[in-house]
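Changelog note: in this version the structure field was regenerated for every chain. One regenerated record is shown below for reference.
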Amino acid sequence: MIERLHIFPEQASTLAPQTDALLFFLLGITTFFVVLIAGTIIVFMIRYRRRDPDEIPPSVHGSLALEIAWTVPPLVIVMIVFFWGASLFATIQRPPDDAINIDVVGKQWMWKLQHMEGRREINELHIPVGKPIKLTMTSEDVIHSFFVPAFRTKQDAVPGRYTTTWFEATKPGSYHLFCAEYCGTIHSGMIGHVIAMEPAEFQAWLQSGQAGAVPPVTPAAAGEALFQEQGCTSCHAAGASQRGPQLAGLFGTTVHFEDGGTAVADENYLRESILNPQAHLVQGYQAIMPTYQGLLSEENVMQLIAYLKTLKTKEAKTP
């Protein structure tokens, strides 16, 4: 059965009313000026049309009041739109500190999602109502775009880097999930649902399917296993030789490079350091780390980063 989609779907997130308010303000301003300008043109065409082939119109010497009238109000309106839009953009780009993080990987033609508790999903995302949700996204192949109309949320998943977005569902329900960037022949089939649940119901879902079965491995635990398997401890573990920087407490700090540059050790920096370690040489260390490009999947890299984040309070384990 094909579900109907409305031009303006219901508001189901905390940011939806703010987004709609700005949209309707822009539509209202646009409609007002379209009617004003088009109406003025029509009136002038009729009232001031040339009635005689030899008629010469009188000279117009200008009006300071008129110049101010059509300059200042549009300037004020434009500045209102700018600051309103910038404020909303800043809010969208800054997830709350207590947001629940979920890793998302776009792939032709599906969405692969993993909760920090280890639960995995494909083309479905279960979330609790009333809790901010932060998505950390990337793509395995081409640009995809994570689009949930009811949440007014759309963010590209770009190969080779991480992008983030966040939302907070306000009412339980099942909401359409689309890829809003043409990504190949089955682009139209890259659809799914975001299922918002009451917090207690969500916790029950998160724990379901584990009775009598092996509990899902969390991204951090999987990353720790990879850290050991790939031999990272030989250079980076606490107490190891000083061939590589110590990673405990690295995430979120400022890293200094040999060329004098700096960078914040966020997800994108850690990803680049794993897949292209020669891009920026950390001050005090030699360029001896090999690349893991092609050896690790996008999920593997996300798992390693999840583990490195835990090293803020937990030292890397030696084998």
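Spot check on this record: DSSP finds eight helices and twelve strands in the chain. The first strand starts at residue 100 and ends at 107.
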